[in-house]
Amino acid sequence: MKKILFAASEGLPFVKTGGLADVVGSLPQELSAIGFDVSVIIPLYLKTARTQHHTLTKIATYPVIVGSLNTVATLYSRLVGDVTYYLIEHAGYFEREGYYGYPDDGERFSFLQHAILRAIEEKHISADVLHCHDWHTGFLPLLCKTVYLHRIPQPLTLYTIHNLAFQGNFPYGLLESCIGVSNQMYFDGTLRFHEGMVSFMKAGILYADAVTTVSETYAHEILTSDFGEHMEDVLRMRKKDLYGIVNGIDVKSWNPTVDTALAKSFDTRTVEKGKAANKAAIQAELGLRQDPGVMLVAMVSRLTPQKGIQILMETMHEIMGWDMQLIILGTGDNWTENELRQIEYRYPRRAVFYCGYHEELAHRIYAGADMLLMPSAFEPCGISQLIAMHYGTLPLVRETGGLKDTVEPYNEFTTKGTGFTFTNFNREDFKHILKYALDTYYRNPENWKKLVKQAMKKDVSWSKSAKEYAKLIERKTK
Questions:
Q1: Fewer CB under 10 Å: which end of the chain, C or N?
Q2: What whole-number distance in Å separates Cα of residue 291 and Cα of residue 308?
Q3: Stretch 94-123: mean pLDDT
Q4: What domains, with CATH codes, occur in the chain?
């Protein structure tokens, strides 16, 4: 039985700031179910320590000495389902109010990677496959093949890009002071990325045995200058080892038939009554006008340019003149949040903005809304559209990345589809498809009901994708 070790900066059920945590919380369980021995290793952050330290078992404290790093790491563990989670404790690096965005992030996550490999060297953990995620663990494949070449059994290294926009770029002096390799790897261009900088992500792409990203379309998009974030030339060098495997969701946590957060559970047979009850409940909870027939549109997202919030804001006055209600749940910069706070005053009982993230409220919004908006400029995979379909809420998405791969556009002639899509990233195309969806909802309700059931029947679990990872591992270890 092959042992797979996931290495990441976050993962459920311990810490989440984005979709990476969902993947690290779900995919290992699915791989375990198909026969792998899977474990996960992440930092032990302050917020986790405050609430869950008493649930952890201490494994060992061991030295981490490399370059200017001369400290210790303490390793804890906890079994979650069939997967062992390891957490690395270091008060100086990880016991802070936030998770990322500190001036010493390069040093912090260099330490994390050495602490992971030292745990393997000390035989506290073993791994046949080391699955590294995003820039925070990008140097692990390089370190395996250099600093730890003769110190640990060499694992197969997989490197997954969740979002190419976040690359982990730091001054090149970090190579000798924190990574433990020569600065020559900057001067000869190997790891150089922008003047005076090296990239954790570039290291992962260059040195991993295989590179994956979270949808097939995104794997093709990032080879172009439009989506490559200046990394496209590096990615083209690894094109033959680059694979797109779409994400799934945890269908145990996201399951409308047993979801205790909902006003009424439902499945494909009871979806009409279930959606109606949940719409009424969310309208009442958020102060919207009680109207069972109105089309309720939602956006559950980080409110950033990537997510297309500007397209929605640019068209707000026009689309709120249509017969619809709008819920927005999320956070963005101060200007965006302040602008969105005005919508409740401009459109009383027809629009609401909940600033922040509330997990149970998100469940209720997915269950009660008729449509979910994801007009993303780019989207490596996206999880919200998968949840929405599973809850009978039709996604309206731009055809990019994983959104294109997972949402089948409605065809009024064949009645096939699981949502609504548009191609060009502009407000006119967005308004056009939203108006088309609105017309379908009101003028062709039987087709709408059929789309809802088709969306709910779509397999959005990790099952198929886990098998794709299994095939890749087998192919690379032959």
A1: C
A2: 28
A3: 97
A4: 3-248+463-477 (3.40.50.2000), 271-457 (3.40.50.2000)
